[in-house]
Specification:
The structure is a homodimer. The longest helix of chain A has 20 residues. In chain A, α6 runs parallel beside α7. The first copy, chain A, is α/β, with parallel strands linked by helices and about 240 residues long. The two termini of chain A are about 40 Å apart. The first copy, chain A, folds into 2 domains: about 40 residues, no CATH class; about 180 residues, P-loop containing nucleotide triphosphate hydrolases (Rossmann fold, 3-Layer(aba) Sandwich). In chain A, about 40% of the residues lie in helices and about 15% in strands. The interface between A and B is large, with 94 and 94 residues. β8 of chain A pairs parallel with β2 of chain B, so a sheet runs across the interface.
Chain lengths: ~240, ~240
């Protein structure tokens, strides 16, 4: 057959079709409507020979997720920004997934009901996983108050590529900062269900990095970022 | 004030708080529950001084979205894979968002009802936008049969950073290839609402690149990828 035959590319190119874990070979397929089809039946897994290892080599770094959790005002965005700058100065590519920003785009259909909060975290975890697969150091910055939701995201990432950073700052400090004026509104009863005031924050039990005050002094953004960078360096994420 | 005071970082660091477009300054806030809160009220836009221009400079390329649309079996994944390899060989970082793969992760809660298809495309567009903002050449590969849904994604990307590639292959060819055996099922009436058989495919009216047969011969993956790479090179995406 000529290599120009339109029919043979699916046999000769580098794409493999791999059945997803929930695909049952030999399963009898009844008449179904696409509108009611679940994803198990007719969705194939596409793989390409150019993968994460090649991208990591190009970037000379290892893709991972740095997940920053903590109260509103605890310094998550400050750390994310400082970390991203520090990594960039070392020639490393990172990208910040900010909880608030995502709610203006990908998650704009979600509110703050319990199931919406969970879906908000799930989607962010899925996107963070894609960025890590792309080879980037993905910095996710979200209050993410519930342990279960964070652990769901951790479970998405294999091989210890989920690095949880807990901003362990006292509520009193976060409230004194109140950068968005939300604690004031929550204390005045104008916002209900606000994390730390009348909705719980569940601290991590097994985080990789904890950022906290030292003798009552809060570390500077540079010092906080340095702590994370040191961890990444030690674990071999900053080379490939 | 000492630079170690925990209270001044929000005044001195590089984070700016920008009201989103739908935020109304001076608006009276009534008592609200977080559970019923919309995203307009208390979500702030986080910005960081390290942005897309700096990431593009690091990568020596410009972030954009290459959106490949076409029938099942038209060669979208083949082109995506070949394009990604060709870009990699030139030291450029790309990432493939494959419609089928996303349905195993981010979009696993969605089926094939009209509104689910639309939401599937919307989320993919939002994620593609994030990857372009990260500085990557994001290659989205989805049937994306409806013009309106594709144009929604185009509208998300400013400055002509949405490059639509139409795999203009005859249905007869796609059906003869039938790499996933889905046309056979659709013709046998075992799948209803299958694009090209009993659900419409709306060809682009204004795509940037069209891939089609030349004198009845289908271009090779290498030739298809070359056409897209030439476009990207000509428009300046492969340098910064």
């Amino acid at each position: 057959m000529s290599s120009h035959s339109p029919l043979i590319y699916h046999h000769t190119n580098t794409i493999r079709f791999i059945h997803p874990p929930n695909f049952l070979p030999g399963k009898t397929i009844e008449t179904v409507s696409m509108a009611t089809l679940s994803n198990a039946t007719n969705i194939f897994w596409q793989d390409c020979q150019l993968g994460k290892p090649e991208r990591q080599k190009l970037l000379n770094q290892k893709g991972c997720v740095v997940w920053i959790t903590g109260l509103s005002g605890s310094g998550k965005s400050t750390l994310a920004c400082s970390l991203s700058s520090e990594l960039h100065s070392r020639g490393k590519l990172s990208y910040i997934l900010d909880g608030d920003n995502l709610r203006h785009g990908l998650n704009k259909d979600l509110g703050f009901k319990a199931e919406d909060r969970t879906e908000n975290i799930r989607r962010t975890g899925e996107v963070a996983k894609l960025f890590a697969d792309a080879g980037l150091i993905c910095v996710a910055s979200l209050i993410s108050p519930y342990r279960r939701d964070r652990d769901t995201c951790r479970a998405m990432l294999p091989d210890s590529n989920f690095i949880e950073v807990y901003m362990n700052m006292p509520l009193s400090l976060c409230e004194a900062r109140d950068p968005k004026g939300l604690y004031k509104l929550a204390r005045a009863g104008k916002i209900k269900g606000f994390t730390g005031i009348d909705d719980p924050y569940e601290p991590p039990l097994n985080c990789e990095i904890e950022i906290k005050e030292d003798s009552g002094v809060c570390p500077t953004p540079y010092v906080m970022a340095g702590k994370v960078v040191s961890y990444l360096e030690e674990k071999g994420y900053l080379e490939c």
